[in-house]
């Protein structure tokens, strides 16, 4: 016998399928990990491809993680907002707003933080691992204008005053960002410097019991920034894998 799902569960499950477009199965942009175009369900579900149409590239497991972390802080009364640094087409933030909506939460904000110009160009003064990746060379795919992200929120009926945009390079916007308290901090800036900027300026605002999600932990530059920051601040909370790409931890103190 099939156990009936609640309306909220059904809505969020469908929202995640639409955001990843496992329904209409759009092609992907070729890149160094997957050099051929086309649709592969496993790559889409695990967030290994760069979709041509879907509103997120993070895959279903990482979207599940966002939902679980948000519902955990809501259940435990952990104060603060949802913040994502590096949003691409906005899909993960759209899910976050959907989670708040189905739970009737009206006093938390979804912060959409991005340059909306893609990945910053690295130079001789940049971290050596960032220089090796040369991700800025893919800005034809990775750069998504803020107006396009806003339209994506509108398509789901989720653009309102609980969604706030913070455009610009992290090094410029985060030091004085008007974000007061964070419950879930999701890092998706790819680079060492972007990851370190996000942690340096936003981790002090993360409530005890809140979560840090690291989307790009598979990338050596991002992983190094995470380890450097945790060592510098004596953070020993367990890093828990989400899938082959990402991890997260819960702040205990």
From TrEMBL:
Q: Which Gene3D superfamilies did the record assign?
A: Vaccinia Virus protein VP39
Q: Which UniProt keywords apply?
A: Antibiotic biosynthesis, Magnesium, Metal-binding, Methyltransferase, S-adenosyl-L-methionine, Transferase
- Which SUPFAM superfamilies has this protein been placed in? S-adenosyl-L-methionine-dependent methyltransferases (SSF53335)
Give the GO terms filed under biological process for this record.
Answer: antibiotic biosynthetic process; methylation
One term of GO molecular function? metal ion binding
Q: What is this protein called?
A: Macrocin O-methyltransferase
Which family is this sequence assigned to? Belongs to the methyltransferase TylF/MycF family.
